[in-house]
Specification:
Length: 398
């Protein structure tokens, strides 16, 4: 359905602005979706207060935007939502000044509501270990989920970064992951030994099963999933090559010849297609999504008795906080997390109490843990309560 003609006054520049974010600014789809929703909410407000008549963008003043701000406060929007919508308006009019259809930015004078960013929820190392051990190891989905949790915690990934991993993004030789983060900024993340072991077990066993599960659905016996409908020789060869098990039988024929001839252009195309496949797949063999990871985590939280409010992003918070507790510097943590601004990383200095406590107990003269043996309780002078006469002394002697 086409929008009314009078709505095009704002819809056309909004569409151009969103196109600019995608093409020039290289913003992610999630960020563009947020900008679109925020600007459409503002458009609905403008249509409502003008009985359906939509003005041109250059006809809107700062005073009118203050009315929009007041309406959001009266509707009890959160401070974060209001700040995000104001940021979208500032960016929209800044784009308009560049394009020439706006002579000034009426949103520049608006200030975000004052608020303090809440501290992230962080698990202890014991709680993390309990959570990572929750997925069963005798089930293909359990092996996949253990690899997921271990990878998020080991590399400090966002869930969107995890589900976006392809085979081409993993360098197992060097225990590295190539991550495309916010704004499509690329960085390298590290795989620890536990995460690498869990990932290899998943890739060499249960991922094969999940990939062929839609074809062999009748053979989905979880107790014997390793025996169900083996993949093709070429697929096994690709996985073996990827995991660098070059001497395995999956890579060579019984007479010693390689199963995959990379001199063949067709074989090379299939190898390139294999590298573009997702690492983590769902029960039907397709790419896993963010919501599925959250739902699986909710089940494991119930199993081990942890707070149900914990999200997959909590493991990213745990990654940063535990590194800081162990002596890592804030600049290195910023690089590992892929934060553009170190101010975003500094919130973990408020969460990391272990390192701060150690510094406090080491540095403060009245907080040291050591107790002088000379000050035994028998030799410590007793502190008598003050006499009533003491309170009758002149003020300067109190």
């Amino acid at each position: 359905m086409q929008p009314p003609a009078n709505e095009k006054n704002l819809r056309v520049p909004i569409a151009r602005f969103l196109r600019c974010l995608a093409v020039e600014r290289n913003f992610s789809d999630y960020t563009i979706k947020s900008y679109r929703e925020d600007l459409e909410a503002w458009l609905e407000y403008e249509l409502a207060v003008r009985d359906g008549a939509c003005p041109r963008p250059d006809q809107i003043s700062t005073l009118e935007l203050r009315g929009y701000l007041s309406a959001m406060r009266e509707a009890e929007y959160s401070k974060a939502t209001i700040s995000r919508r104001l940021a979208a308006l500032r960016g929209f009019y800044k784009f308009g000044e560049r394009e020439g259809w706006a002579t000034e930015n009426p949103a520049a004078a608006l200030r975000n509501p004052r608020g303090r960013r809440p501290l992230p929820r962080v698990l202890s190392t014991e709680e993390v270990q309990k959570l990572l051990a929750a997925p069963p190891e005798d089930d293909p989905l359990g092996l996949r989920d253990r690899a997921i949790l271990e990878t998020i915690y080991s590399a400090g990934l966002r869930v969107s970064e995890l589900v976006g991993l392809n085979f081409s993004d993993v360098v197992l030789d060097e225990d590295l992951l190539k991550i495309r983060g916010k704004g499509r900024r690329e960085r390298f993340a590290f795989l620890g030994s536990f995460a690498k072991k869990a990932l290899l077990r998943y890739l060499l066993t249960s991922r094969r099963y999940l990939r062929i599960a839609p074809i062999a659905r009748g053979r989905r016996d979880r107790a014997r999933f390793a025996e169900a409908a083996p993949p093709s020789n070429e697929e096994r060869a690709f996985v073996a090559l990827f995991t660098k098990t070059a001497n395995s039988d999956a890579v060579r024929t019984p007479d010693g010849r390689p199963l995959v001839d990379f001199q063949d252009p067709t074989a090379r195309r299939r190898w390139e297609a294999f590298l573009a496949e997702p690492i983590f797949v769902n029960k039907n063999g397709g790419r896993l999504n963010v919501r599925s990871v959250g739902r699986k985590l909710d089940g494991y939280l119930r199993d081990v008795g942890l707070d149900a409010k914990i999200s997959p992003h909590t493991l990213r918070h745990c990654f940063a906080t535990h590194l800081l507790d162990s002596g890592a510097d804030i600049r290195s943590i910023q690089e590992l997390l892929g934060h553009k601004n170190i101010v975003t990383t500094q919130i973990y200095t408020h969460v990391s109490t272990a390192s701060l406590r150690a510094i406090y107990e080491k540095s403060h003269p009245r907080a040291r843990l050591g107790f002088d043996s000379a000050l035994a309780p028998s030799s410590t002078p007793s502190i008598e309560p003050p006499l009533a006469a003491d309170f009758n002394r002149p003020t300067q002697y109190r």
